[in-house]
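Re: the request from the purification team.
They wanted to know what the chain is likely to look like in 3D before they choose a buffer screen. I agreed to run a prediction and write the result into the notebook, where they can find it.
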Amino acid sequence: MQTDRGACFLLIEGYGRGKCVLLADAPLLHYTYLMHELGLMTGVMGVVTQAAEEAGAVRVTDISLSVGEMTEAIEDALVFAFEALSEGTICEGAALHVNMGKPASRCLECGAEYEHDRFHMTCPTCESPFTELIAGKEMKIDSIEVDLPD
């Protein structure tokens, strides 16, 4: 892997095989993010593949995910990781829909519940910094659509 800009080969290990993916002309910082999303998508692919195979599916056609913004997952990197990992599997060619969810917190002082961004968690009602995150770190598979044999 180069340390600046330029072509880079990233070895992805998954499902008992290794494959090389060419990442061209992207800053090194993006590789760090991609590695996070590769781990997340490896888990998703395992669950989706197992569910589809148990249902007797011949192909997965559509996957919908809900991902909280506080996971710090980047939607484009999730899609790229899915496309790379799904090659040669039952999920190849499936559409991936990622719904990014806003974080929400509960104030431990006044009990108010509110949505916020990743950096401003202070209670808007009483301005207390003592809050509890109640949404935004989740990652769940909302739906999987498959083709079944005739």
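For the purification team: Residues 34 and 77 are 6 Å apart (CA to CA).
Please add any questions underneath this entry.
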